[in-house]
Specification:
The chain is built from four helices and seven strands. It has 146 residues and is of the alpha+beta class.
Length: 146
Amino acid sequence: MIGIEFKQHEVNKFLKCLFKNIDLSKYSFLFLEDELYDNENPDFREFGINDYPDDFDEFLERNYYIIFLAIQVYLKGSNIGVINNYEDFLKSTCQLIVLIVDAECFEVYFKDLDLQNQIMKNIESLNIDYKIKTVDNDTRYSMHIN
């Protein structure tokens, strides 16, 4: 298993569930592509390419309407490099990639087994139907949204 894919409405609330019981202070979160709206402030909010949210916990608490978002997760202090495809991901220090498309389609790619195990527990506790991604059935060529 290299990852999973599934559909889920209420993306922002679900992101919080996805990262439940994970010590987020150990990780840096890199936003590479995003389009989201802040429901508490009607202004359009873009983090921009290569932007780091100051506090991912705070980001998860905010009420964003996420249209698309690409998140790369690194252990703090790790080297951050360019990841264009799955092979680049395997060679990188990135531990997890979360891609959200069209405000409901999730793709999650794992490298860190502890993250994988906890995220799978979180998803299974919510009774979400998901498809397991393998090297043989994964049709994604790029680790980007567009």
